[in-house]
Each structure stands twice: as structure tokens, then as C-alpha cells.
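[09:14] KT: can someone run the structure on this one? pasting the chain below
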Amino acid sequence: MDILIVNYEFPPIGGGAGNASRFTARELVRTCGERVTVLTSAFRGLPRRETQDGFRIIRIPTLRRRAYRCSLLEMAVFAVSLCVFGLWHAMRRRPDVIVIYNGMPCGHIGPLCKWFLRIPYVVFLRGGEVPGSGAGLPPFMHRLVHPATWVIWKCAAAVLANGEHLAGLARKAVRGIGIGVIANGVDMEYFHPAAGPSPGADGELRLAYTGRVVKEKGLAELVDALEMAAPRVPTRLFLTVIGDGPEIPALRARSDRLSEKVTVRFTGWVAKEEVARELRESDVYATASYEEGVSNSVLEAMASGLPVIASDIEGHREVVRDGVNGFLCRDVPAIADAVVSLCDDECRARLRDGALAAARAVSWAEVARKLAAVAGSACGRPTNHEAD
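[09:31] RB: done, C-alpha cells below
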């Protein structure tokens, strides 16, 4: 098949959805033998056209200014640009099927290509475009774009979500549509444990967070929990925040008031290779996000051999098993208790084994096989791959 993937974010810009489309594109080529082109946003310093891992990347004009965040205006500009450049590319390329990540701001290209070019499409929901997910579009925007969402989903050959919780929210948002589930995978070639002894053998417990530094990720609560845990543990607590966002100044100010036993370091936005290295040099992954789908970052941390401290929300419950590969925490004191528990070498080693086992159970190759089956069904080209 000739598959066109559309996503307004693609590494090095964006977050989990961009990473998901990157790894899936690679495995569609490597594992499934498909021809793949990715259509995404232009960004300063990035080539307009390039080839990675056997698939093509085409970046179309936008007004995107920041790697870590896209404003509503920037999304709107991408949507307009996609109407012109996306339709033009689809008309020239004539792919067999289009796979659209993020129903907003990318989804409208699907009905346009179906109506004018008779190209079927699949929508892969990631969270922010689904009402009730607590991320992405604000509630008034969901109400405003609901008619468009209804059309985009209704006209799709298939609508997928990356987790059961998100699929349930989508079914409530647009009644009468079947929502399939293809969960996120993890690349264990790229993310893997450090060789040799545990990094925490030097009397420090090193925690890591990766992703956008925005209020809904709960980093202020995470910092408060470390300060609460500090008097109860014999080691120093060291948190590395890997990512960028508007909350960094407030978090820096908060961190300056912490006790000597707690240190917070901010790396800013870094390349994926640096993210993998930082995870290998850490002992624990921590996130106190208010709302989340099935998190790529959590899976990557598990693949790196890190037990996970996570807020007790639906998306985290799909991958974190309390007391097996991490701890699910309802509030700041519970996060502090988890930090205290993971200062124990035996507990940390046990949960590390559980995290690695959980990561090995999923892979991007399996995601690609399932997506190829859905795409093949959409365009009338059955494959030997299995789909849920």
C-alpha cells in the first residue's frame, strides 16, 4: 500500500502523538513493507523534504513558533495550509489510504480527499481532540467544532483511539460510531536500561519527567511531593525535568525555595537521543498529570528500566500496575510515600523488573501491523496483519 500519514506534529516538534507517528511510519516500512509519506508542519531549521528510515517527510508552510506547544491560531493556520498543500499532494501522489493523527487540526483533509479524490481515510485519535479528555482544545472549542468532528468521524473508514478510556470518551462524544483501539507501543532498541549497576547506587534517587512543561502535567505537585518526602529518606532527591513549556519560570521559583536535599534541574527541549540518555541515567520516572491518554513517555521510561510514579488517572491505569511496575497515586502525600518506598533498593529492583516486562509486551512493530490491517481494509487491500 501507499500510505499518507498526516500529523501537524512530528519530531523534533510536538509530543507523544508526533513520536507515535514517527515510530509507526518506520515500522510500516520496516515490518509491513508499505510505502509511507508523512505530511507535517514546517519548522525553522528543518528541511522541507527529507527521508528517514525509508519513509518520506514533507513539511508544509505554517506559523509554528515553538517546538513544545501549538496555539489555536497556529493550529488554524496549519488547517488552512493543509487544505491547499495537503489536497495538492494527495492529488499528485494518489495514496491508497490516508492515516490522520489528531482529528483536530488535521481531520478535515480526510473528507476532502474522500469526496474529491475518492481516497479513504482512517482517523487515529490521540486525546486532545476528544471532549472530556482534559487536554488539547478547551470546552468551548469542542462545542464549536463538534459538527466538523461529526462529519470527519462519520466519513472515515475507521476511527481508532490509543486507549480504552479515550475510546469510551469518543463514543460518548459522537454516538453511533465504532471506535477501535490500537494502544501505543515502545521502541526497546531506542529506549533500554543502562548497562552496569543501577544509577542510584551513589546515594541519590534520580527521578525524571519528560514532556511538555504545562500546568496540566502536575509538576508543581510533584515538586511539593519531593519536598514532603525529603525528611523521611536518607538520600538526596534529584528531579530532572526534560522538556519545555510556559510553567518553567514558576517551577524554577518554586524549586529555589526547596530544602538542600531536593534539587530540580531543567534541561529544556532536547533531542530524542538525549531523552533516552537521561532516562538511562535515572532511577525512577514520575508524572502527576491531571489527564493523560496511554502515555508514550511512561512506556519509554519502562523500556528504560524505570519504575513509574504516576497520578491515578485512566490513561495511567492502562499501563501502570500499582505495586508491580510502579505506584498509582491519588494526591501529593501518596506521591511522597511512593518516593520513600522507591528509595529502598529491593523495592526499586522489583518494580524495575515489572516495568521491563510491561514494556516488552508492546512494540511499535505490533502497532504498525494492526494499523496496516485497518488501512488495508479501508482501501480494499486485505493484508495478513491482524487488527483488533
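[09:33] KT: thanks! The CA atoms of residues 272 and 383 lie 32 Å apart.
[09:34] RB: yep, looked fine to me
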